[in-house]
Design goal:
Helix content is about 70%, strand content about 0%. It has four helices and no strands. The N and C termini lie far apart (about 55 Å).
Length: about 100
């Protein structure tokens, strides 16, 4: 017996997931709150070695970038959205990462 996927039910579930995600995201009021919620990298942790540390940093930046882009569009509009994401999130975090870079372990 095959299970059939109810397309209408699937659409409702997917729509609900997106709506809940957006509701949570757009409730954030400041860039600082957004970064605190969606950037998960500990600058004091060496993550075992520099390669693992870099991978973790890149993964954390990618996660933040996607949420920040959507948040910036909602709060400040589409114009220069990508520039704002780099100006307010990516560039400062990359500078901090470079300042805390550790020598090869």
């Amino acid at each position: 017996m095959e299970d059939k996927i109810d397309k209408k039910a699937l659409k409702e579930v997917m729509t609900s997931i997106v709506e809940n995600r957006n509701k949570e995201l757009y409730a954030i009021q400041t860039r600082e709150e957004l970064e605190k919620k969606y950037f998960h990298f500990d600058f004091n942790n060496d993550y075992g070695n520099n390669v693992q540390r870099l991978r973790k940093f890149i993964d954390s930046i990618e996660l933040l970038k996607h949420f920040a882009r959507d948040w910036e569009k909602e709060k400040f509009g589409f114009t220069c959205c990508v520039d704002r994401v780099y100006q307010y999130y990516i560039n400062p975090l990359c500078k901090k990462f470079e300042q805390t870079r550790k020598e090869d372990l």
